[in-house]
Specification:
The complex is a heterodimer of chains A (487) and B (618). Chain A has helices spanning 2-12, 15-35, 50-70, 73-97, 117-133, 144-163, 167-172, 177-182, 187-205, 216-236, 241-262, 269-291, 297-320, 323-332, 342-354, 382-414, 419-443, 461-479; strands at residues 108-110, 113-115, 210-211, 214-215. Chain A is built from 18 helices and four strands. Chain B has helices at residues 5-8, 10-33, 38-47, 89-96, 100-112, 130-139, 162-165, 173-178, 192-196, 198-201, 243-252, 289-298, 307-310, 320-329, 363-369, 372-383, 393-406, 428-435, 459-470, 506-519, 577-590, 598-606, and strands at 48-53, 60-61, 67-79, 122-128, 146-156, 167-170, 187-190, 206-212, 218-221, 237-239, 258-264, 269-276, 344-347, 350-353, 481-484, 533-541, 544-554, 561-567. The N and C termini of chain B lie far apart (117 Å). The chains are: A mainly alpha (487), B alpha+beta (618). The interface between A and B is large, with 52 and 41 residues.
Chain lengths: 487, 618
């Protein structure tokens, strides 16, 4: 009986994911070997070296994956909360017993080994979230308490990890917003999140040039608010009359502003634009009252929230963020060059990747990474090694491999007969999306520097095992999707 | 099992999102890795420390294989400012034996210099002695960012031939512009053979590519040295100089202004080339070079001015053998033609003085006695002979001039040394401009017949005329380098050149010059066992006392040496030119000075003509 089930596990195993996983882990270990390769002392399996350790961890992770496949899927479902609870305890304990390593208290040191519980919090949170959603008749949007429960599961580890001063790892859990979205959360939240980022970037980046009597950033943001308002009114009201009226009003007011500006009358542009939006909001409220369309309240709320957001950005940026954080953001937005400070890593990493060319310099031939020009190159900046030694072809293939893996996991998620399996799979996909986007984006200077590892590549057993556990639990759940119908 | 198909569509939003991001990232990778080459260069300049490997400069030997110029290692203290970390300046200064002020000044100077960069090696101090080098090496590990670059210093074994050998200096901006081979801090030849044979002597620099990590530590050789370019040592030169003869000639010229050029007629090889006053070539070596150079340029006697090939003097009577050849070639005279001379050349109210001798006389006795009248009559008959072949004075003069040009006057001879002067030969146009077309005739310009007037020649050109007569009709362009290691000498220095004078005319002139030694103006050169031929010159000049000149060769039958001596403001050719020239010939052919001629040597070694030069030292 038991034997049968195990054979069916390997028969139904999703080999696409297994193969991509295997390739990524091997490529990762080789990259670590390349990045820590010493010209004089070159032994892959010297366990005192980074690469030696990484090869050992890679080997162990294959064993771990195999063992996980043997565990019955019902174990995960049954013990999801228990596992979550245990990990939360571990995270709490970590805060107190972990030694201070570069200001972060996230590593538990056991003899010669050290372990980062935050990496294992991911699968536990995923299990707990899956378990919550698979509760009988659970509907995320049915009542607010459901939503709050979900948020609670997500935010407990976030807060604990923030307390360990591991901001990067904590932010990873924010990616679970994709899961909430898939399970019914309004797309408006995603859009709001996206729009908030746009407002933030535009306001900060163009804060210094003045146009029409106000910072250029604010002008652009208010234009965007107008456009979004019109679009939302068009979506939420019956017919297009209201949206059309609003659009005409906005266009006329902008034209008037430009004419007044041409006449060289000094107009307080900010107040003018605010008044225009204010009038627009009043018009929407009028439409709301007249048609009793409560949904129109959404665009109104969004507009107000956006205005508040816009004005608070400057405050948050200048008064809440630490100077080094401000610097990181400014460097990322290309407002400052700080090649010896914050920007040094990123600049050297761009040089490493850029010097790879199309075919790369060849395995072990990279100079940037070999000679330590890129700090953290075997951990967060491991992608540089691929970019430098394997060139465009290697780095693009790596990106594509991750893309295929993520898309494959989404496919797996959608074929799950159980909510538990689907939600868990989406959790895995979300984590991967966040890690890959942020890590590679940071290395190629498209995202701010947030210290999180590249899955399967970055040096470290915790990260590799964390993702192995995530992935193989998914594979096991997926492999037994057919027999789950029976219980 | 509940499944919400409306929500399932949201997989496309999530999938689309990651697809879009990956698309953007691949685009970014494309622009970084393929579109833009600058990152490759950045990476290379980060990682590769290109160290120049300096070749050793070619050595110089004299014609007898005696080492003349050689190399001595010197050590430059270099620094890469970016890599320098705070260090104990006091102990650094002590190791180099400099003061703190000097240290600060060096750093400040360095920052001001052209091409200063904190990323590339900068020269902090040049040419450390072996002792200082040893002291610094012990402590060098304490001063990260500093390193030692091995260089060479030129050493001159003999205090002689500074004008021929030249010296080396650091290249300047113009040099780098002129020759892309040069980089900042390289050395190039300055003056003399060091300059004219620089491309042979310098060799080819090599490159060593080292791999440097982020801390500036050398991690090894790039590709195990396969990409390194080894340096190629410079070629050794064998000079045609006889360094002993050179030293002897220089000693004779002490306290005199002038030049000596001695040529081996058969080969055109210059045996000695003296410019006096001269200087010790070792003055221009090493760190003291700058000060010494400044001192030499300020010296009123202009020791850096190579009088042997840069000074254009009136050749005076040393010009007369050439004149005789032209007159013979043009058929104006034959060996028996005699002109009368009663104390000079008197024609049309013009008088060129002469000295007491029998009259009338033919070419040979005219050379013997250095008769001015003979050559004036000769030139007059050539130029004013309109009925003959020339048609006009101008045409006749051009013919005269072209013969001289073929003998090496008026243009650079092409010696293998820099800055040769071409001397001066007027042409017909020159006189037409001065006097008006058709308004000049032989008498107007008669002084050129005796090497005065507008005619100017370098001692080298006079020596070359002498060598041509010694060879009886040909010469090889004089040169100071006999052999270049592993290279064939350019044909210019091996081919015979024939002036436009038939070789049959030379014997007469040579005989005349032999008579001048046996019974004429050059009697002091009449060596007991060597048949010397010679011609004195006493050149009037606007600077004071006459210049004393001599040209001669020996032996008469098989000439081994042709020499020109030119001593400024020293009086008659016979007083200084002849004794110095004859001593050089004797020394070269006999290896020593006969006891009965020692008194001449003594006199020449100790006489001083500089006092007549009109140059006041202070």
């Amino acid at each position: 009986m038991n034997n049968n089930r195990n054979t069916s596990v390997f028969k139904n195993l999703d080999w696409t994911v297994v193969i991509i996983y295997f390739l990524l882990v091997v490529a990762g270990a080789l990259s670590i070997y390349a990045s820590s390769y010493d010209f004089d002392n070159a032994s892959i399996f010297d366990f005192s070296e980074f690469s030696g350790k990484q090869f050992r961890w890679a080997g162990l992770s294959f064993v771990l994956g195999f063992v996980l496949l043997l565990i019955d899927r019902r174990m995960y479902e049954t013990y999801a909360y228990v596992i979550y609870f245990l990990i939360v305890i571990l995270l709490v304990v970590t805060i107190f017993i972990a030694p201070d390593i570069n200001g972060s208290r996230s590593w538990i040191v056991l003899g010669s080994m050290s372990l980062q519980p935050a990496e294992f919090g991911k699968f536990a949170t995923a299990l707990a979230l899956a378990k919550l959603f698979s509760t009988y008749n659970f509907n995320l949007t049915a009542k607010p308490s459901n939503f709050i429960k979900a948020l609670l599961i997500i935010f407990v580890p976030i807060i604990l990890i923030l307390a360990q001063k591991e901001t990067g790892s904590a932010l990873v859990y924010m990616s679970l917003i994709f899961v909430l979205y898939r399970e019914g959360m309004s797309g408006l939240v995603l859009f709001a999140g996206f729009f908030a980022v746009v407002i933030f970037v535009v306001t900060i980046k163009f804060a210094e040039s003045i146009v029409l009597g106000m910072p250029q950033g604010e002008f652009v943001v208010m234009l965007l608010i107008m456009v979004v308002m019109v679009a939302m009114i068009a979506t939420y009201s019956k017919g297009y009359a209201a949206a059309r009226n609003l659009a005409i009003g906005y266009v006329l007011s902008i034209i008037l502003l430009l004419i007044l500006n041409q006449l060289e009358l000094s107009i307080p542009g900010r107040i003018y634009m605010l008044s225009a939006i204010g009038l627009g909001i009043l018009y929407c409220i009028y439409e709301l009252m007249r048609n009793h369309l409560r949904r129109i309240a959404i665009p109104i709320g969004c507009a107000v929230a956006s205005i508040v957001m816009m004005f608070s950005v400057n405050y948050v940026f200048n008064d809440v963020l630490q100077p080094h954080q401000q610097m990181r953001i400014k460097v990322t937005l290309g407002m400052e060059d700080d090649l010896l400070g914050v920007g040094y890593n990123v600049n050297q990493s761009k040089i490493a990747i850029g010097s790879g060319g199309f075919w790369g310099k060849g395995f072990l031939q990279g100079t940037q990474t070999k000679l330590d020009y890129v700090p953290e190159q075997h951990t967060d900046f491991i992608f540089c090694t691929i970019g430098e030694e394997e060139g465009f072809i290697g780095s693009a293939l790596t990106v594509i491999a991750f893309l295929v893996l993520i898309l494959r996991i989404i496919t797996i998620a959608e074929r799950q007969p159980t909510t538990f399996g689907r939600v868990y799979a989406y959790c895995v996909a979300s984590y991967l999306i966040f890690h890959v986007c942020i890590n590679i984006g940071m290395v190629i200077d498209l995202c701010p520097v947030i210290g999180i590892p590249l899955p399967f590549f970055s040096y470290g057993g915790s990260s590799l095992w964390g993702f192995t556990v995530l992935l193989f639990i998914l594979l096991r759940i997926d492999a037994s999707r057919r027999d789950s119908r029976n219980y | 099992m509940r499944k919400d198909y409306r929500l399932e569509k949201r997989k496309y939003v999530i999938g689309g999102f990651i697809l879009l991001i990956c698309f953007i990232y691949i685009g970014r990778l494309y622009s970084l890795q393929i579109d833009d080459d600058k990152y490759k260069n950045y990476a290379d300049s980060n990682a590769f420390l290109k160290k120049t490997v300096y070749p050793s400069r070619g050595l110089m030997y004299d014609r007898n294989g005696e080492l003349v110029v050689y190399n001595q290692p010197a050590y430059d203290v270099m620094m890469i400012p970016r890599d320098v970390q705070p260090f104990d300046t006091i102990s650094f200064c002590n190791a180099l034996k400099i003061t703190r002020e000097q240290f600060d000044k060096r750093i400040a100077d360095m920052k001001k210099s052209v091409g200063y960069s904190t990323y590339t090696p900068q020269t902090f101090l040049t040419q450390l002695s072996a002792e200082d080098y040893g002291r610094l090496m012990e402590k060098l590990y304490l001063f990260p960012g500093f390193f030692i670059q091995k260089r060479i210093l030129r050493q001159y074994k003999h205090v002689a031939a500074a004008n021929v050998l030249g010296n080396i200096r650091e290249v300047n901006r113009q040099d780098i512009k002129r020759d892309p081979y040069f980089e900042r801090g390289d050395y190039c030849g300055d003056l003399g053979v060091e300059k004219s044979y620089d491309t042979y002597l310098r060799g080819v620099k090599g490159k060593e590519i080292l791999i440097r990590d982020v801390h500036g530590r050398i991690q090894g050789r790039y590709l195990d040295g396969q990409a390194d370019v080894p340096s190629v040592a410079g070629r050794n030169l064998t000079l045609s100089l006889d360094i002993n003869l050179q030293q002897y000639a220089e000693s004779l010229m002490v306290n005199k202004i002038g030049a000596v050029v001695a040529i081996e007629p058969k080969t055109g090889e210059i045996l000695a080339m003296v410019s006096s006053p001269t200087y010790d070539p070792n003055m221009l070596v090493g760190r003291k070079r700058g000060d010494s150079y400044k001192k030499l340029t300020k010296d009123k006697y202009k020791p850096l001015f190579d009088r042997a090939l840069q000074a254009a003097y009136p050749p005076g009577s040393t010009f007369k053998p050439g004149q005789g050849l032209i007159l013979l070639q043009e058929g104006i005279i034959n060996t028996n033609t005699a002109y009368s001379c009663y104390g000079g050349y008197i024609s049309g109210g013009l008088r060129v003085g002469c000295h007491g001798h029998s009259s009338p006389l033919a070419l040979k006795p005219a050379l013997q006695t250095s008769c001015n009248a003979f050559f004036c009559w000769g030139l007059k008959n050539m130029l004013d002979n309109r009925k003959a072949k020339y048609g006009s004075v101008a045409n006749a003069f051009e013919t005269w001039k072209l013969h001289l040009v073929s003998m090496g006057f008026g243009y650079r001879l092409g010696v293998d040394l820099p800055s040769e002067n071409r001397g001066f030969l007027p042409n017909a146009q020159f006189y037409s401009k001065t006097y008006g077309e058709g308004h000049w005739s032989a008498n107007t310009i008669i002084s050129v017949a005796i090497g005065q007037g507008e005619v100017l020649a370098t001692p080298l050109q006079i020596a070359n005329l002498c060598a041509t007569i010694a060879n009886r009709g040909w010469f090889i362009t004089p040169h100071v380098v006999k052999e270049i290691q592993d290279t064939v000498m350019p044909s210019e220095y091996t081919e015979r050149k024939y002036p436009t004078i038939d070789t049959r005319h030379y014997d007469v002139v040579a005989e005349g010059m032999r008579m001048a030694v046996t019974g004429g103006t050059c009697r002091l050169a009449n060596l007991p066992n060597i048949e010397v031929c010679g011609k004195t010159g006493t050149a009037q000049n606007p600077h004071g006392k006459d210049h004393s000149a001599f040209m001669g060769f020996a032996p008469y039958d098989d000439p081994q040496i042709a020499v020109c001596v030119y001593v400024e403001n020293a009086g008659f050719g016979a007083t200084y030119g002849v004794p110095i020239g004859s001593l050089i010939i004797e020394k070269y052919l006999n290896g020593q000075i006969a006891p009965e001629r020692k008194y001449i040597e003594e006199r020449m070694l100790h006489s001083n003509t500089i006092i007549y030069s009109g140059v006041r030292k202070h």
